[in-house]
Amino acid sequence: MDPIELLTQQHEEAERLFQQVAVVSGDERTVLFRRLAWLLTLHTQLEERFFYPEVKLAETRDLVQHSYDDHAEAKALISQMLHLDVSDMQFEPALIRLRTSVEAHVAEERSMLFPQVRRLLSAEHLERLGDELLRGMDELTQPGALPSVSHESQLGAH
């Protein structure tokens, strides 16, 4: 499995969920936001535990550090938002900040980090890293594995 393709698929799924959350309300918005929060939490954990440590090379060190910083911002926003009702006046501005932050992060990864990783790592190394990400996904999708967003909010999501 190509790890960049896997991460890109998650980026695309997050964008679809952002679009859906933006146009619904009530219980449907709550369910979709929790699904989005779970996906973003899974994605950040995969990148932080498996992808970034493997690709943090001299040429990518600053980009990877910036990505960790982006994740910290997103995780803080998600944590705040999970304590809000979707009808709360603070929810919509927080959703916009989260989406803007995630979109900027994704654009940076796609335009700068991912091309450098493809250039610096061999095809075999990328394949091994992709397999490690898949194993990490299996581990992290077990009930209770992601502390900030319950797995139960994902039941029936796929």
Beta-strand percent range: under 5%
Number of helices: 5
Number of beta-strand segments: 0
Q: What fraction, in percent, of the residue positions are helical?
A: over 70%
Quaternary state reads single chain
Report on the structure:
The structure is a single chain. The protein has 158 residues and is an all-alpha fold. The protein has 5 helices and no strands.
Task: Describe the structure using short key phrases.
mainly alpha, 158 residues
Write the topology of this structure.
Elements: H1 3-23, H2 26-55, H3 61-82, H4 91-120, H5 123-140
Helix pairs in contact: 1-2, 1-4, 2-3, 2-5, 3-4
Please summarize what this structure is:
The chain is mainly alpha-helical. The chain has helices at residues 3-23, 26-55, 61-82, 91-120, 123-140.
